[in-house]
Amino acid sequence: MEVLAVLNLGDFAQAFSKMGMFPVFDLAYYIVSILYLKYEPGSVEVSRRSPVASWLCAMLYCFGSYILADIMLGSSPIDYFQHNSHILLASAVWYLIFYCPLNLFYKCVAFLPVKLVLVALKEVVRTRKIAAGVHHAHHAYHHGFFIMVIVGYVKGSGVALISNFEQLLRGVWRPDTNEILNMSFPTKASLYGAILFTMQEAHWLPVSKSVLILVFTLFMVTTKVFMTARHSHGSPFALIESWTCHLLFGSPLGGGEDDHHHAAAAAPSSPLKTKEELSEGVRKRKAKKAE
Amino acid sequence: MEVLAVLNLGDFAQAFSKMGMFPVFDLAYYIVSILYLKYEPGSVEVSRRSPVASWLCAMLYCFGSYILADIMLGSSPIDYFQHNSHILLASAVWYLIFYCPLNLFYKCVAFLPVKLVLVALKEVVRTRKIAAGVHHAHHAYHHGFFIMVIVGYVKGSGVALISNFEQLLRGVWRPDTNEILNMSFPTKASLYGAILFTMQEAHWLPVSKSVLILVFTLFMVTTKVFMTARHSHGSPFALIESWTCHLLFGSPLGGGEDDHHHAAAAAPSSPLKTKEELSEGVRKRKAKKAE
Amino acid sequence: MEVLAVLNLGDFAQAFSKMGMFPVFDLAYYIVSILYLKYEPGSVEVSRRSPVASWLCAMLYCFGSYILADIMLGSSPIDYFQHNSHILLASAVWYLIFYCPLNLFYKCVAFLPVKLVLVALKEVVRTRKIAAGVHHAHHAYHHGFFIMVIVGYVKGSGVALISNFEQLLRGVWRPDTNEILNMSFPTKASLYGAILFTMQEAHWLPVSKSVLILVFTLFMVTTKVFMTARHSHGSPFALIESWTCHLLFGSPLGGGEDDHHHAAAAAPSSPLKTKEELSEGVRKRKAKKAE
């Protein structure tokens, strides 16, 4: 019986890891990504004033991970733009989210139950991207473990890592913070995921890649759906990170006022939250006001 | 008779599209480009304090389109710098424009009739660059229509697209605007040109490439010469764009006060004009004062 | 007798230019580079708040020259990260300098006599990097003299050329200055060295490469050790540069108040010194206060 269960799990994981992402999962990815772009203050005005800038930002949100990974591996940064159907689908989503009459499409996809499903599908794509990034880097650099982690990381985090420059495209400049200084949950999870997948690729983990994909997907989906439903931006890693950083790097425990105190001198500690971590409620209000 | 006329036009277009650009046309391109650099406030001071920074800016003005296109296609960004004669010619122009005794060279080339000829020659080069960029991208990505448009676009627009970073090299930082948010006429025309040449390359336009090059060159030359002569920065596309954007993207008609009103919240709407669109008169006064 | 001396010198230069840099010289390079990172105001706070950002900055300090050269030649910017042992060594140095209990490691390596030895070893690596960069570019572009100079230059200067973006990673943004506008001694020396090595590669200099490496290394080591020992930031090129720039580029002689006067209008002349030129004493005080 147990053997059967394991076999079945292995088979299921295998099938799951082979499942095509286009178009359903990719569509969800585009919708959630461009939704987050619309939540950004000022993005609606930019879409009115300069549709080209708005479209470019939307493409960065949808394909930033491919662009960054291609740069890291020395390929053409717009290599992925050869997939016309993907670009057209993402462009259609961008148009519907920003310019649909009565804002109908936006209202549908931002409706919480719908959004939770889309967020779940997006996390499935994210995990697959990390695994593909690590695999791709492994192919190019057989023992380049750091390169594998970096490529998997940028594949998972995407536009967040270049948010300063994405904002610059929209005429916004916030040099006092960036995604590396203040990592959001998806960025952190991408880093840990990239490390796990690299360890799997180097045969340091006693699991098959398909099982790892399945397990990591389940973790990401449940965590992200829970966080979106609760409008929370706490991270499940907070406690363990706090202790590890305290022991290894002498970071203050809790990270509360002491952190604040320290930071004041160096970089003006900014009250800005990172992209995906901003309270959804606040963002929606902003987005509504902007229209 | 008519057949003969068509044949002749075809032959002429063929010959025109095969005509070499080096050195006469390229020289005009370098002169006009570095002239625009000298019009930039502060560039004369930089040329005195740091000749290396000034030279680098001049190279970006002259070869920015090659650098950007090479980046987009994943080649070495300084690949074009292997053409020593082009670099030396551009460097000579830079030296003469910035350091010629009595500012003699600058006065000659900035003299309106001379300048109009040079501007006309520059637009010939621009059109050829767009066509070459689209063709090059078509060679690398046979069905990558978006890639063709992007490469043609950056080949036509050149340094304008990275003006924020070119300014940073001179110690100037204006994050609230960029060439994508506020497109100048040459940038817009490059975008439309890149789309046209891509359609031609994909056989969606019933004209030969040489005829398209001829027609687009004529359009660019007449428009740009007229605009330079009139010190105008209105765009011939303004009316049709205004209506298209209104219908497709809900942009306010006219783009005047309403636009201003909207933008005020998001990006502080800046009174800065883009590089090539600044009134020539104002710029000349600034450049003179700076000397 | 004289022939013998020349032979011996040639042999010695040959042996010196073949000497392996890993691990001793590279270790010194990493230590001095990360020491300079710790001198940067705010870097200690960043190491507490975000170890990932601090590690990335350290990697940029250690491997910035490889990253830049790879970008310039169109390879993967993280190509060098395939050398796991180098990355691990640099990471160990980073950990020891920033997190060693009682700040012991930092105190040891920042102790002047130790530091002078390390600085000397670092300059040996710098010269070798310039020579290797020029040689690498020569291999790719046989007559691309400008490309050789550029690649040799970025190999010698490393992170200094992208210090604006390295600072941005730490949440600091100083757009009014950069390493090109205000070149420090190592950056200038790298430029001159790259020109010399390019001339040697093009057979315009009547010396062998190994002799040039030996002579340039001796010059760099003595100058840099002397400057570090004296806490000086004067450049040995100052006088000759001042006259050359005055004759060629009309720069004001002396570069003192007149320069200041000119710059005031354009870029707000900043009192910030560049990285490696800041008085060591002041920096140490800052670094100590920050802990």
Which properties best describe this structure?
potassium channel activity (chains A, B, C), disordered C terminus, 14 helices, 70% helix, transport (chains A, B, C), mainly alpha, homotrimer
Radius of gyration of chain A: 20 Å
Strand content of chain A: under 5%
Q: Percentage of helical residues of chain A?
A: over 70%
> Biggest interface and its residues per chain?
A-B, 34 and 35 residues
Oligomer: homotrimer
Compute the number of strand runs of chain A. Answer: 0
Report the end-to-end length of chain A measured between terminal Cα atoms. Answer: 59 Å
Overall number of structural domains of chain A: 1
| Average pLDDT reading of chain A | 87
SS summary, helix count of chain A: 14
Q: In terms of structural class, how would the helical and strand content of chain A be classed?
A: mainly alpha
List the secondary-structure elements of chain A in sequence, H or E.
HHHHHHHHHHHHHH
Low-confidence stretches of chain A: 255-291
Largest sheet of chain A: none
**Shape of chain A from CA axes?**
globular
GO molecular function, one term (chains A, B, C): identical protein binding
GO cellular component, one term (chains A, B, C): nuclear membrane
Keywords (chains A, B, C): Ion channel, Ion transport, Membrane, Nucleus, Potassium, Potassium channel, Potassium transport, Sarcoplasmic reticulum, Transmembrane, Transmembrane helix, Transport
Biased composition (Basic and acidic residues) (chains A, B, C): 273-282
